[in-house]
Design goal:
By secondary structure, the protein is mainly β. The chain is built from no helices and 24 strands. Keywords: Repeat.
Length: about 280
């Protein structure tokens, strides 16, 4: 008999809310992206208030830094550095801003200015994966263009955000206009295109360090199998407090899933267990 393969399903064990409001926030809030550091600290991108906010290991908001314009995504680079995508449409300015954690404070460091619009960013093995609405580009950390991995031409939002599997053999793209999750192989070939009723207008995708794939739709957060072919679990809906979710992140240090939302100053935390289930 062949060896059985398993997929780790996420099971929600409890829900907690954490304050994501800084005293002089203007509101409304829009937590469009979340990432974490290896020690369990969490950074969130608040698009509406143009701030990156730092949470400690106890989920307390301890620091923030202001940026000049709208933030669309954030990704971890190493143990103390992250990168955000920011856009100023008035001046046609498109920048990746690097931010470093220094003595528990967030400090802006270098920037990379690109020549095209972009929204999503992911980091894998020294490369940056950048989405441009209609294409997925790969750059080095110093801003050298490597290649265009995927393109879907048109004026629609077809390549909004992306995630990369830990091994780098799969890249995932969300296409909100056509309600799709697209899985690419390492060379950019479309491996799978996934559409399901619960995945309306997907706007965020996250590949955990242990291989789970989490996808945010307009009214729900799903776990999809690692090949991007089927729904495994509906993790959150409006019924459990996920109202207009915008972002998702699995915090392995606490075995919890964090969900950011639109026009809501709380970060939703789902305490979870990973169950081994035969495929």
């Amino acid at each position: 008999m062949g060896k059985k393969s398993f997929e780790r399903h996420v099971k929600c064990m409890g829900i907690t809310l954490h304050n994501a409001k800084v005293l002089d926030d203007n509101g409304p809030w829009s937590i469009v992206a979340i990432c974490g550091l290896p020690d369990g600290r969490i950074l969130v991108a608040d698009n509406a208030n143009t701030r990156v906010k730092l949470f400690d290991q106890d989920s307390k908001l301890v620091s923030h830094c202001n940026v000049y314009e709208y933030i669309y995504d954030i990704c971890q680079i190493n143990c103390c550095d992250v990168a955000i995508t920011q856009e100023d449409y008035n001046t046609n300015r498109h920048e990746l801003q690097f931010i470093s954690l220094q003595n528990s404070k967030l400090v802006k460091t270098r920037t990379l200015r690109l020549t095209h619009v972009f929204h999503g960013v992911a980091h894998n093995r020294g490369n940056l994966y950048v989405t441009t609405r209609t294409a997925l580009m790969i750059y080095t950390l110093r801003g050298t263009f490597l290649r265009k991995l995927y393109e879907d031409k048109g004026n629609c939002l077809k390549v909004w955000k992306c995630a990369v599997s830990p091994s780098g053999d799969r890249t995932y793209i969300v296409n909100p206009d056509h309600h799709r999750l697209i899985t690419l192989s390492r060379d950019g070939t479309v491996f799978c295109t996934f559409t399901v009723n619960e995945l309306e207008s997907p706007i965020a995708v996250h590949a955990t360090t242990s291989g789970q794939l989490l996808v945010v739709g307009i009214n729900s957060v799903l776990q999809v199998d690692s090949e991007g072919k089927r729904t495994l679990v509906i993790l959150a809906t409006e019924r459990v407090g996920a109202k207009r979710p915008q972002s998702v992140f699995y915090n392995s240090a606490k075995s919890s899933i964090l969900i950011g939302q639109y026009n809501y100053s709380k970060l939703l935390e789902l305490k979870v267990d990973l169950m081994k289930v035969p495929c």
